[in-house]
Each structure stands twice: as C-alpha cells, then as structure tokens.
Amino acid sequence: MNAHQIILRPLITEKNTNLMVFNKYSFEVDRNANKAQIKHAIEEIFNVTVTKVHTMNMRVPPSSRPRGRATRSR
How many CB atoms lie within 10 A of CB 38? Predict the structure, then answer.
C-alpha cells in the first residue's frame, strides 16, 4: 500500500489542536493498516521520526434511514 493510501486525512478538532502543543497528531488512516505501516507512512510523508503509534477503531455512524416501520397517513 502507498503511504498516501494509508494516511487519509488529518483530524482537526479542538482536542487534537490542544495536543499539537505536545507534538501529538491525529490522522484518519485505512482500516486495514497496522501500526508499523502507519509509522512508516507518517515518516515517509512528513519526514519526521515517529516514537509511538496509538490506534482506535471508531464505530461507523448509523445510516440516516428511519427506525421501525414507516406509517402511511390516510
């Protein structure tokens, strides 16, 4: 897998912005990538040395379809 296929996008939130002070950065990555692949991709793209990689599997949000049966008005 290419490094740009592993790293999808940076995550920009208020919490992640505060962590940047401590040189901690967050990225959305491919679900099939392991920690070694993520580390290598970050080092290749940004030309930095990665000390640790933490991963988290996020739950996919439910679709926007209604729950239960649809009622028909008469």
Answer: 20
Task: Give residue 22's domain range.
Answer: 3-46
For the domain that residue 27 is a member of, what is the CATH number? 3.30.70.330
| Structure-token pair, residue 17 | 């912005």
Tell me how far apart the alpha carbons of residues 44 and 4 are, in angstroms, rounded to a whole number: 9
Predicted confidence (pLDDT) per residue in 28-59, tens digit: 999 999 999 999 999 999 999 999 999 999 87
Whether pTM > 0.85 for this model: the answer is no
**Phi, psi dihedral angles at 43 (to 5 degrees):** -65, -35
